[in-house]
Amino acid sequence: MRAILTGDRYPRALLAAVIQRLRAGELADGPRAALCKAILQREARLHRRGAADPSTNPTQGVPVSLDRTESDQAYRLGRLFAVLENAQRAALGRLNASVRDRYYGAASATPANVFPGLLRTTTHHLAALHRDRRTRRLAVWFEREIDEIMRGMDMSLPRQL
Known about the structure:
Blueprint: H1 2-6, H2 12-23, H3 30-50, H4 73-92, H5 99-109, H6 111-131, H7 136-151
Helix pairs in contact: 2-3, 4-5, 4-6, 4-7, 5-6, 6-7
C-alpha cells in the first residue's frame, strides 16, 4: 500500500511470490498478470527517471505486441514455448494437459533441461501436421517460426532463468 501511495517501488518479494505461484502450476489469471506488469512498469519507470540518458522515453511501457527483434533469451524462450504449445494444439486438438499445463513451471525455471524434450516432441506434432494435406502450410509456418526464434538465440540454452 505504501508503494501505491508514495509512487515508490513495489517490494521485490511480491514479484517473487507471484512467480513462485506460477511456477507451482497456479493459473496465470488477470490479477496475477496485472500485478507482474505493474511491478515491472514501475521498476522501468523509476529506472528511467534515475537514468543519466535524456533520450529515454518516460512514457514507454511494457510492450504488448510481438517484438521479433528482441534478443533477450528469456523473451525468445517465451515465444518458443508459445509456438510449441500452438503446434501441439494444432496437431492434437484440445487435451486434458497441454504443454503449458505440464511444463510451464519447469521451462521457466530450468530451460536447458526442458526445451530439448519439448523440441523433440514438437517434431512429432509437425510430422502429424505434414501428413494432412489441409495442415501442411501450418506445419511449414510453425517450422519457420521455430527456426527464426532459434536463430536469434545463443546455441546453448540457459540452465536457469
